[in-house]
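Example record

One chain of 345 residues, shown exactly as stored in the release files.
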Amino acid sequence: MKNIDLITIDGTRGEGGGQILRSSLTLSLATGKPFRITGIRAGRSKPGLGRQHLTAVRAAKEVGGAKVMGDEIGSTDLTFVPRGVTAGDYKFAVGTAGSATLVLQTVLPALLTAEGPSNLVLEGGTHNRAAPPYEFIEQAYLPLINRMGPQVVAELKRPGFEPAGGGCFTVSVKPAVKLKPLEICDPGEILERSIRAVVAHLDHGIGVKEFNVVRKRLDWLDLEVKVESAAAAICPGNVILVTARREHATEVTTGFGRLGAPAAKVGEEAAREMQHYLSSDAAIGRRLADQIMLPLALAGGGKFTTQPLSNHARTQAETIARFLPVTVEVEEKDRHLYEVTIKSA
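Predicted structure tokens for this chain:
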């Protein structure tokens, strides 16, 4: 790989985790620009590539026909040289409870404008604390992607909880010639609200307690208790999903069951996050903000209102600027509301 003009990325910048690597992979695939990243997850207790990150690297390698150096567990340096995105049928398996949804978000943007349709099978964690759960992808992220021109449909086959994972979902992609910019500044009226507790091989009463905590905190007392059993999951697990579908965007907040966390605490986490979102007048939530920023940058523009930006979002903006001739401008409207504008430089 000598004499190649590489974009150099410092993996310790910003939030310093796996996102800067995944975003660099995504942008490299979409632009054809090779890069080298150093200091991957250097500040984490286990630095370097974990299994989830390695799966994302190898997924990007396969989709982009890339030459890669440093793609091994524990590696803190990686060089990635794509040769061109190829649409097709792919299967990517994390092998642990590491997030399969983050693997999807690594390769999906490049497939949105590929020369043909693609079908993906993703296996691993679908519901864990360190990543967007499947329902967030399906109900919040993909509807915005589809408004940009492509047609992307996902289907959950089996949920995968920590620590075993074993979840599976499929995604079909009908690409667009070019992505269309979006402007999402007004959230609009709430069209639908829902609270859904999911339990796998655990007491049904856990979900009931979580549901009631959320219902009371949000004053959504008209909703009937809805608890689902995820019998297909290979290990015990629990998640509560709180959804507000509005005219122009959807927000999904979550609480994840885990050892040492009472059901009331899990429900309170999901309810508090939704309450903060609804009280902010933001069109999209904090997590969706950093995830939709990259597709909008690939579209060449966009605008949205959101809550105060996370470190993930700020890192995302910095990484985008290394690969694309766009600027990401952030204007504080008030303490709880920010306007993000993405435009060609």
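Notes: The first helix runs from residue 19 to 31.
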